[in-house]
Each structure stands twice: as structure tokens, then as C-alpha cells.
Specification:
The protein is of the alpha+beta class and 291 residues long. It has two domains: 154 residues, Ribosomal Protein S5, domain 2; 119 residues, Alpha-Beta Plaits (2-Layer Sandwich). The chain has nine helices and eleven strands. Strands 1, 2, 3, 4, 5, 6 and 11 form a seven-stranded mixed sheet that branches. Strands 8-9-7-10 form a four-stranded antiparallel sheet, with helices on one face. Helix 1 packs parallel to helix 2 and helix 2 crosses helix 3. It is globular and about 55 Å long. The protein starts with a strand and ends with a strand. 46% of the residues are buried.
């Protein structure tokens, strides 16, 4: 059996430009990935099948449009495999969960079926399935532009301690973009010219950055404001931000003890929220591994 981690994607900032002729908006974002992840397992089988388990399995259906199955079909192989997706990440949450699952299927089945495709090949295939899938194929710190498919690899971020919080309220990306009425951040950030090797390097770099989708997402789900405020008021938090189109928010903390205490308090004070202590993942975290 082969196991592949499908890590949550974080937009450390997200600036949104005008809508293009193809209907997509121009984007700029610094993205990274965490050790909070779904897990895809692959076993030999004559036919292709998918089973979904885990705490958020009930929010997904095993349909032909599931991104895992779409990714498998996009590889063009008629071979079979028994796929099991452990769905640990909330759905429609702004952390690229579905795209990460699709990317994990591309990476894992490439190895399982011995296709010999490069990461660049897989990212190109993934771009035809979804805007976030190429970034999730790489699953490392990236500068993202275009509609999300133009990627520049950056030096890895250190394994900074994080807390992820989702109020268990799905937010539809299309609705968030529909409510977007200001686009102020495009061009305000330069691609980092050197590695952001410490938490203070990162905080200083992000000082003037924002998530242009936050206001629209908060209009649809006002609880996001409550989540951001709760994270920001935790001792040791140096940055609180919404990721993607929401509703997941993250806090970066000075060190492990601060983040552990924050996660415990947030979970205790808000048992209805999904709260996870995690950290930024190493670049090889999403590499398929035999189990």
C-alpha cells in the first residue's frame, strides 16, 4: 500500500485583480503547506474505486466529479487501484483540501502505476482539473500568480508553529468572489528575493499584505471575524489571517508552547469550531511513501 499526505494549503496573503476574459481573476499569493492533511491510500485492484473515511467524509460524495477520481482519469491510464481518502480537513474551507486530494492522487498514482511523469508534468495535468492543483502537486512554499497556475518555487519556510481554526461553516468560493468589490493589493508585494528564514522575516515581509477576499467572506459568514479576533488575542500570536476564500483562519505563533496553549483554549472555548495545532510542512512531506 502507498500512502500520500495531502497537506492543507495556506495563502499567507492573497491579492485579487480584475476579472480576465476567461472569467478568472488575476491573483498574487504567497502559499505554503502544513502538516495538517488528508491522507490518500492506494492499493492494487483491477478496477478504479474510491472510499472516503475520516471526520469530514460525510460532506463528500463518491461521484465521478470527485477531484481524486478526476485526477486519476486525467492520467490517462486504464489500470485500476483501490483508493481510500481519509478526509481530515474541512470541506469548502479555503485551504485547498479538494485540490490537495486531487494532487495527492496524481502524485501517488504516478508512482503506483509506474508512469514516470515529472512534477512539472503532473502540475500541467492538474491545471486542467483545477486552479489550485498545480500548487498542491508541488506542496511547498510558492509564489502564485495568474489564476493560480503560474508558480515560482521559493526557499522553504521554517517549520513555524500554527493553529488552524474553521468555524465548521462551508463558504463557497464562487459566492465570495461574487461579493468582491475592492481589489487593492495587486502589485503591492514583490517576490521574496531571499529566504524568509525566521518568523520575524516572515512577519516583516507580510506587514503590508492582506487577503482581499476577507471582507466578502465575512459578509457571507460573519463568524470569520470572531475566529480572527479569537486567534489574534491569544498570547504569542504574531499573525492572524484568513486563508483563501475562507472560512479557515490561521495564526502563526512565536513557538510551540504558545501555540499549544492557544489550540487548547480555542477548542475549549469554542467546541463547535474545528481547531488544529500544526506547523509548516517540510518540502518532502507530500512525497508518496510505502506503508
Amino acid at each position: 500500500m502507498t500512502r500520500i499526505y495531502a497537506p492543507a494549503k495556506l495563502n499567507l496573503f492573497l491579492h485579487v485583480g480584475e476579472k480576465r476574459s476567461d472569467g478568472f481573476h488575476e491573483l498574487e499569493s504567497l502559499v505554503t503547506f502544513t502538516e495538517a492533511a488528508d491522507i490518500l491510500s492506494i492499493e492494487p485492484a483491477e478496477k478504479l474505486s474510491l472510499n472516503i473515511t475520516g471526520p469530514f467524509a460525510g460532506m463528500l460524495g463518491v461521484s465521478p466529479e470527485n477531484l481524486v477520481l478526476r485526477a486519476a482519469r486525467a492520467l490517462g491510464s486504464t489500470r485500476g487501484a483501490m483508493l481510500t481518502l481519509e478526509k481530515n480537513l474541512p470541506v469548502a474551507a479555503g485551504i485547498g483540501g479538494g485540490s490537495a486530494d486531487g494532487a495527492a492522487a496524481l502524485r501517488g498514482l504516478n508512482v503506483h502505476w509506474g508512469l514516470g511523469l515529472s512534477e512539472s508534468d503532473l502540475a500541467q495535468i492538474g491545471a486542467g482539473i483545477g486552479s489550485d492543483i498545480p500548487a498542491c502537486v508541488w506542496s511547498r512554499t510558492l509564489w502564485m500568480s495568474g489564476r493560480g497556475e503560474v508558480l515560482t518555487r521559493l526557499a522553504p519556510l521554517p517549520p513555524l508553529p500554527l493553529v488552524l481554526v474553521n468555524p465548521r461553516m462551508p463558504v463557497k468560493t464562487r459566492q465570495v468572489f461574487s461579493g468582491l468589490n475592492t481589489r487593492t493589493g495587486m502589485g503591492a508585494m514583490d517576490i521574496p528575493s531571499r529566504g524568509l528564514s525566521s518568523i520575524w522575516d516572515l512577519v516583516d515581509y507580510l506587514r503590508d499584505a492582506s487577503n482581499d477576499l476577507e471582507a466578502s467572506a465575512c459578509t457571507l459568514a460573519p463568524v470569520i471575524d470572531d475566529v480572527l479576533e479569537a486567534i489574534a488575542h491569544e498570547p504569542g500570536c504574531v499573525l492572524a489571517q484568513m486563508s483563501g476564500s475562507g472560512a479557515t483562519c490561521f495564526g502563526i505563533f512565536q513557538d510551540g508552547p504558545w501555540v499549544s496553549g492557544a489550540a487548547e483554549r480555542l477548542a475549549a472555548d469554542h467546541p463547535e469550531w474545528w481547531v488544529r495545532e500544526t506547523r509548516i510542512a517540510a518540502p518532502d512531506f507530500g512525497v508518496p511513501r510505502p506503508d
